[in-house]
Design a protein that fits this description.
Length: 170
């Protein structure tokens, strides 16, 4: 995983072949295929098992604080070059590669479940649509605008998101 994380930003998703990865990691390709039967599975693990950036939020009863801390954690994760490259690759391949489409769906489900776990002490649980409304602007800023979402941007997103939650009766 560490070798893949190092190579991915350097060679890109198509350049990250199992032959190259096996050579650099000093393992056999069969070992890699046993762990990750396809590239989408490898990218999935790269995304969800990224390096510990030391800023993953704690569960809490204040929805604003949990959502803000979670978005800052998302920003930090996607700003890491290997994770950013893997996310872009899985997203780009999802339309024509069923494994990538499945990996992308599983990432979304995993992150929604993780956020709902963080929100449990508040008594709030969000739907997939409410989840998309929270992370969407931050990913748009990072991946489409190619700009860093500032703390102020994140605060604005959370404020708007909370307004939406209140309107829906949360």
């Amino acid at each position: 995983m560490a070798v893949a994380r190092e190579l991915l930003p350097e060679v890109g998703p198509t350049g990250l072949t199992y032959a190259l990865l096996a050579e650099r990691a000093d393992v056999t390709r069969q070992t890699l295929y046993r762990h990750w039967p396809n590239r989408a599975a490898l990218l999935f693990d790269l995304i969800l098992e990224g390096p510990d950036l030391g800023n993953y939020p704690e569960p809490g009863s204040d929805v604003r604080t949990v959502a803000t801390d979670w978005l800052k954690s998302l920003r930090a994760g996607i700003s890491e070059p290997a994770i950013r490259t893997a996310v872009l690759a899985v997203t780009a391949q999802a339309d024509h590669d069923p494994d990538s489409a499945q990996a992308l769906a599983r990432i979304g489900q995993d992150r929604l479940a993780a956020l709902n776990t963080l929100l449990e002490p508040s008594g709030v649980q969000i739907s997939d649509s409410e989840y998309t409304l929270l992370y969407g602007p931050v990913l748009a800023r990072l991946l489409l605008d190619r700009a860093q979402p500032t703390d102020e941007f994140i605060d604005t997103v959370v404020t708007q998101w909370l307004t939406t939650l209140e309107a829906r009766g949360h």
